[in-house]
Amino acid sequence: MAASPKKSLALDTNLLLDLAGERDFAHEFAEEFFSRGYSLFVPPTVVAELALFASLKEAPQQEIANIALEKIGVWKCQPFSLSSTQLTIALRFAARLMDESLIP
Question: If pLDDT is split at 50, 70 and 90, which confidence band does 5 have?
């Protein structure tokens, strides 16, 4: 019998901000997926967005963004980077979505 592929889930910025804000549903979400054998990954865009929020002195998210950046490892969330090929694909896909006015 072949081994099943490892299950993984990419998180968005809002979930990490909710974890940092000690929102119960966010912690329950993470615990549930860990218990189901998922690895939780943090895309580079999420790390960049958290870093931006953390750098903005007047941003309401500044404090919790700093907490999120500090605790990513504690929450067993794994940041990852993209290869140059993957990054090129992502940028072209985003450009196409913008060209079609599907995202700003």
Answer: low
User: What tokens appear for 11 in the block?
Assistant: 């998180």
Q: Residue 31 and residue 16: Cα distance in Å, rounded?
A: 13
CA distance 27 to 32: 8
Q: Which residue has the tokens 């940028």?
A: 91
Nearest partner of 30 among 45, 19, 17, judged by Cα = 19
d(CA 39, CA 9): 6
pLDDT of 43-62, one tens digit each?
999 999 999 999 998 888 99
Neighbours of 99 (CB within 10 A): 9
